[in-house]
Design brief:
Structural class: alpha/beta
Shape: globular
Number of strands: 12
Radius of gyration: 24 Å
Strand order of the largest sheet: 1-12-11-7-10
Helix content: 40-55%
Bound molecules: 5-phosphoarabinonic acid
Strand content: 5-15%
Order of helices and strands: EHHHEHEHEHEHEHHHEHEEEHEHEHHH
Largest sheet: 5 strands, mixed
């Protein structure tokens, strides 16, 4: 597995001093890097950052493979019910590896995997309609156990299964939740559902290497041992304090410096359909971890880069005009793949001589060339950009990329002065939803909200 990080086009000598990063700025951050790294490692030692050690947990692989073998032998479909960090990592890895990996982990057939991460009744109904309740297993994934969307999905799915199979419905559900606390854990204790634990201290968006991601991925035939091995083998490259040779710290530092020069939008643009959903996963990781009102010192900061996803080459015909000529507010991170699992040689066609320049080249070559051309165009227009080159999309390289981005986010949190592991901003809406849906204990909040609506001067246009 080979990953390289080309950040030449982030630098002032390529894109100018207004938005480019200078070598001196990186040198200046070296001492800060040593301090932050020491703090991170001290926290890791104290067990406060358990996500760091997940790739080294051989026991979880055996446990998940055993449970997955049961699921695969009993059901033909595994449906994930979960949202945010309980769903995005699974989707990202499955999109990257699912099709390519099917059956290669020694599995005797693999389950179809469906990830349901919304409570849109149209979408939910349509996906259930594709499943046979007697042959479907649900992984109900929620760290807190109280997430309204996941609980809603579970209640609907449980009834749907019970209507079809009767009192044996419990066998169709696996709860993935906190080992001790939360509503789902209580339900497991009361009703005897099969369950897996999410290690305490591992938050949703950092949990893809726990049962949250590994159970569904193992069911789907992804080689989860290789996924974790890729992350574990890569760990030494991102767990040291030399800024210029640590790609996770370096990219965090570049993004941080660029943010401070007004480039507050961070675009991730894989040139690979298989890596498209990795961009979605990263968007949540970056946004929820870094977008904060308060710093760790209690100061009001209102800080955080805005992550945006794009797909090469598709979005060259949608977004790139804006990236090249719009406001100077973006940094683009490309992910480029050297070798694709499949290739298409572009054939000649005598009746279409105007396109003959393509003949004999490959589709992969065209995609790689387009990435290079877009990077060059951005650079020419003084737009900072960098490229992560991945030799091939494999379980190992995907595991390494995930680990890299997790460490990058943790380090970026320290640079921005925020706690990347919390998400206080999503609480308000969550609690109000409970209140408005009639959850007991939230009556006062509901009354306050209704009173505020009464005071509001409504401006609603009938169209
Ligand atoms: O990253 C996070 O912590 C969140 O996105 C959560 O994963 C999401 O809110 C779902 O929470 P839970 O797993 O508690 O249902």
């Amino acid at each position: 597995m080979q990953i390289t990080f080309d950040y030449s086009n982030m630098m002032a000598e390529q894109v100018g001093t207004a938005h480019g990063i200078t070598a001196a700025e990186l040198v200046e951050l070296q001492e800060v890097t040593r301090t932050i790294h020491a703090q991170i490692m001290a926290r890791r030692e104290r067990g406060e950052l358990p996500f760091f050690d997940l790739p080294f947990d051989a026991a979880i692989v055996a446990e998940m493979q055993q449970l997955a073998a049961h699921v695969r032998s009993t059901f033909d479909t595994l449906v994930v019910l979960g949202i945010g960090g309980s769903a995005l990592g699974t989707t990202a890895v499955y999109s990257a590896l699912g099709a390519a990996q099917k059956g290669s982990s020694g599995a005797t057939g693999s389950s179809r995997l469906i990830v349901l991460d919304n409570v849109d009744p149209d979408g939910f109904t349509a996906r259930l309609a594709q499943c046979d309740p007697a042959r479907t297993c649900f992984a109900v994934i929620s760290k807190s156990g109280s997430t309204v969307e996941t609980n809603c999905q579970f209640l609907v799915a449980r009834k749907w299964v019970e209507d079809a199979v009767g009192s044996r419905f419990r066998e169709h559900f696996i709860m993935v939740t906190d080992p001790e606390t939360g509503l789902l854990r209580d339900l497991v204790r009361r009703e005897g559902y099969r369950s897996c634990s999410i290690p305490p201290g591992v938050g949703g968006r950092f949990s893809v290497f726990t049962a949250v991601g590994l159970l569904p991925l193992a069911c789907a035939g992804v080689d989860i041992a290789a996924l974790l091995k890729g992350a574990a083998d890569f760990a030494p490259r991102v767990c040291h304090d030399e800024l210029e040779s640590n790609p996770a710290y370096l990219n965090a530092a570049l993004q941080f410096l660029a943010y401070n020069k007004g480039l507050t939008i961070s675009v991730m643009m894989p040139y690979s359909d298989r890596l498209r959903d990795l961009g979605d996963w990263f968007r949540q990781l970056w946004a929820e971890s870094l977008g904060k009102r308060f710093g760790t010192d209690g100061r009001e900061l209102y800080v955080g880069p805005t992550p945006v996803n794009a797909l090469g080459a598709t979005d060259q015909h949608s977004q790139v005009q804006l990236y090249v000529e719009g406001p100077f507010d973006k940094v683009v991170t490309f992910i480029a793949v050297d070798d694709f699992a499949h290739e298409q040689v572009i054939p000649a066609y005598e009746a279409f001589p105007e396109a003959s320049y393509l003949a004999g080249h490959t589709m992969g070559e065209l995609l790689r060339t387009e990435q290079q051309a877009t990077a060059a165009a951005l650079t020419k227009h003084r737009r900072p950009n960098c490229t992560l080159h991945v030799d091939r999309v494999t379980p190992e390289s995907v595991g390494a990329l995930i680990y890299l981005f997790e460490v990058q986010t943790l380090f970026a949190g320290a640079l921005f002065g925020v706690d990347p592991l919390d998400q206080p901003g999503v609480e308000e809406g969550k609690l109000l939803t409970y209140a408005l849906m009639g959850r007991s204990g939230y009556e006062e909040r509901r009354r306050d909200h209704e009173a505020s609506l009464g005071r509001r001067h409504a401006r609603v246009l009938k169209c």
